[in-house]
Amino acid sequence: MNRKACDDFRKLHERQEEGPLRRRDQQRYDEHLNECGECAEWLESRHNSLFCLRLVKSEVEPSEGFSERLQTKMQGLGKQRLAYWSPAIVGAAVTALFLLMLLQVATGTAANAVKNQGYGEARRLKVVPSPLFETPTPTPTDPMP
Amino acid sequence: MMNGVANTGRDHGIIESYFVARVRSGNEAAMSTLIDRHRGRLIRTAHNLLHDRFEAEDVAQESFLKAFREIGKLRDDRAFSGFIYRICVRLCMDRLRLKRAEVIEFDTVHESEGQSIETKVLVFKLLDLLSEELRTTLILREMEQLSYDEISAAMDVPVGTVRSRLHAAREKFRRLWIEATKED
Lengths: 145, 184
Ligand SMILES: [Zn+2]
Fold this sequence. Notes:
The complex is a heterodimer. By secondary structure, chain A is mainly α. Chain A is 67% helix and 0% strand. Among the domains of chain A are: 3-56; 109-143, no CATH class. Chain B is an all-alpha fold. Chain B has two domains: 1-102, Orthogonal Bundle (Rna Polymerase Sigma Factor, Chain: A), CATH 1.10.1740.10; 104-184, Orthogonal Bundle (Arc Repressor Mutant, subunit A), CATH 1.10.10.10. Chain B has helices at 9-24, 28-50, 53-69, 80-99, 117-128, 132-142, 148-155, 159-182. At the A-B interface, α3, α4 and α5 of A face α2, α3, α5, α6 and α8 of B. The complex binds zinc ion. Residues 1, 5-6, 9, 32, 36, 38-39 of chain A line the site of zinc ion (ZN).
């Protein structure tokens, strides 16, 4: 027995499980199988054990009432629930939230600009308040007579 | 089949997407159709993995509920079959992890299911000696006849991992099988 050749044979066998071997590999495989008793024995036990496994593969059929029991569990899983989790609805909700936050930031900035007009940077830039956020201008008091 | 077309892989996908689209809009009749189309396979897969037909039915039902609830995560309606199959395999793996500490009982092995009780009990006992990962990979390949890529998707591991797990699982199972049959 040549350990290296045996290992090579077993590796080729594993590869064969995924698809056909190339012609040269197949030739090497066949030659080794023909001359190595130990690998022939290994292959036989491998086939037998896996055959045994396939033999006990389940053939059961759904029991009577399987679908009915499932239908009962599914009650309430109809339209409402699926619609609630639908990606379109979730997407729309996120967009709406984002727009709302954007609006809030915009109104806050404008209000601050109005509030600070006449001081520092705002005065130099001559910020003109939007009529929407206009604050009543204090009436100048008459100078003392 | 729809429009009298033979049920090729592509047509299967088209039919599947038709019912999935209706499920998305909450149609319960379409849910029933998908249940009828997939229940047999899911129960058999879960039975192969869990060795208990009642638990297998339980997992199959759980798979349908999860799949319908999470239908929004399915990007391609034609892929429902793989989507629900993956859910089922993962639910089985969760149960197998929980079961590790328990003593496995083979109370659901019946001779009427085809093979001899002795063979079944022997195979189930040997499979139970493998780790949960090796056992699941071996069953998906040898019993379920999945491709390496399909196992990779179902178990959410790279194909290289599937390859090495299969190599280890087949060899370990072979050795256990030789040991067990020597005693007879
Ligand atoms: Zn050899």
